[in-house]
């Protein structure tokens, strides 16, 4: 059995604010990297005990070189570094039996520890009219390859967001959000136990979880904070810019093209001048 792990940082055990996820912030970032590696290792250990034979870990935060390679479980392979065509989902294909999203966070515009979607420039993003965050975009990529996302870890609120999109998904809740930069965290030991327990449950029940499939062509809608960002995003050929809502639309042939277009639009939008 093959397992794909996409590991972000904001939803990792013990992480509550940007001092843990920003490389320039010193000692807490170094601790955050250790916490991230520990969470991944807990999942890997439980997965191996549950019959998984091959594990790919995609480091999926910022420049994607956060996990401590030398401390990662020896049975896992680490995909590190960027850029990557498929970003947080690079390497997934039909050969995987299941995917898990570790250390994930809620989408932009709602509560949750370090909630955002990809970058700060976008307000809401929609796939076929449904508002989604990073969880939804990445689940759509897994779904395109017929791979179910069977487990998510993070705070109590990403658990809700994930269950809305994927009924029955296992949720390893390692902290309870108090504000966007505060949380009540389980102890290291309890968080590890929760991650292991939910990993085992998820793999046992994996056949009951449907891949998150999107109708094609996929309509991507990106609602920006201001017109300057939307104008930049609308440079992408084939887009339609709705000025009244600062929303740029694009019809993609499949989720992969949608994802790449979304990233191109975000990069362009972040170059907008004046805020
Ligand atoms: Zn992140």
UniProtKB/TrEMBL annotation:
- Pfam families documented for this protein: Peptidase_M55
Print the keywords alphabetically.
Answer: Aminopeptidase, Hydrolase, Metal-binding, Protease, Zinc
Lineage: superkingdom: Bacteria
Q: Where is the active site?
A: 116 (nucleophile)
Q: Where does Zn(2+) 1 bind?
A: 8, 10
| InterPro entries reported for this sequence | DppA_N (IPR027476), Peptidase_M55 (IPR007035), Peptidase_M55_sf (IPR036177)
- Gene3D superfamilies assigned: Dipeptide transport protein
Enzyme Commission identifier(s)? 3.4.11.-
GO MF entries = aminopeptidase activity; metal ion binding
**Binding positions for Zn(2+) 2?**
8, 61, 105, 134
- What is this protein identified as? D-aminopeptidase
